[in-house]
Design brief:
Length: 433
Amino acid sequence: MKQQKSTLVLAALSGVPFIMVLGNSMIIPVLPAIKEALHLTQFKVSLLITLFSVPAGIIIPLAGFLSDRFGRKKVIVPALILYGLGGILAGLAAIFLKSMVYQAILAGRILQGMGAAGTAPIAMALTGDLYTGKQRATALGIIEAANGLGKVVSPVLGALLGLITWYATFLFFPLVIIPVVLGVYFLVSEPEQNRQAQSVREYLKSIARVFEKKSAMLLTSFLGGAVALLTLFGVLFFLSEHLETVFRLNGVRKGMALAVPVLFMSSTSYLTGRLIKKRLALMKWLVVTGLALISGALTLMGFYRTTYLFFIAISLAGIGTGLALPCLNTIITSSTAAQRRGLVTSLYGGVRFLGVALGPPLFGLLMNYGLPLMFWSTATLAGVAALLAVFLIRVRDMKEPAAEEKSGPVPYKLQPVPGMAARKPWKYPEKQE
């Protein structure tokens, strides 16, 4: 692609994860206001995050299958529209309903989650289709940085919208989705991938072959991505309440404090994407280092006694997340053939969403048993993920798929014919008298 066109295409694709991440991160600063307005418990208010992420995690594999079968754009554009409609439903329910408001908002959040299933993971697969080699690593680093930038901007944006009213955040979604939909539809030209009308059974068999050969690496990468986002959103959920009760921060000041770990994550994601290029061994050790940093930061947070130490620890956790996620994205997209990349990256995206979904309720539950236990137990989880990455992410599994993994029939001349091993395969045996 020409440089100017490539920049516009990447900007349009980066808008997809940027919009998607607003779905949770922009809501976090106003959770205490929603809790007070609707008289909710801490667990019920956490469901506003969980019931967005769980439907997304469940439906993402279907979205990936459809994108492999029919094309990426045919999934991304309708998904973004559905995402906006869910925000409209939640916002209008808060304005016009006198009863069952909470249930209607949850319905809107579920609809948003279903739309989110066809956004960022499919955009990641499309980026893998459009770019190769060093450009792919850089482009995926930018995609992850856009995801992180959304996490940086959204707490401040959510806090600002919360100054108007707590439900203004829901009505903001359709406004920002319109330009992204137009950008993806008009600017992105999807490459031909020779999509085949395989049956679902044949398609699943081809996916199973990928996991047979690279199961250890893929499953470890999935776990690493889920743990990184579980801890990130768990910490953000904890901070949303903690900053008000302990540090007396409200409004924009609170939003800016929430943005600290994700600002470090976003900056690190961008730099990591520029650094890794095609250095496969480096990717592995950056994943290990990132998960180890998260584990160490959470351990430190269990001991914190001062404000400065606390914010140093959450910044280190953000850096660790920024080191791990771009490398995991590149490892997964580069190790799978284009015909199956949509489903594999969608499975990864689904696991990431489930990590986001589990983070807030898990931290909310563990908060009842004391902060040290909350931080140390999740630090152990991140440490286990780092150790698994040391032993199970192997450089040879990161390389492009081998010929037998790619679709298409094996040529007849490569197939051995019984009883003819001693003869040249392109000649018929002489007729015997």
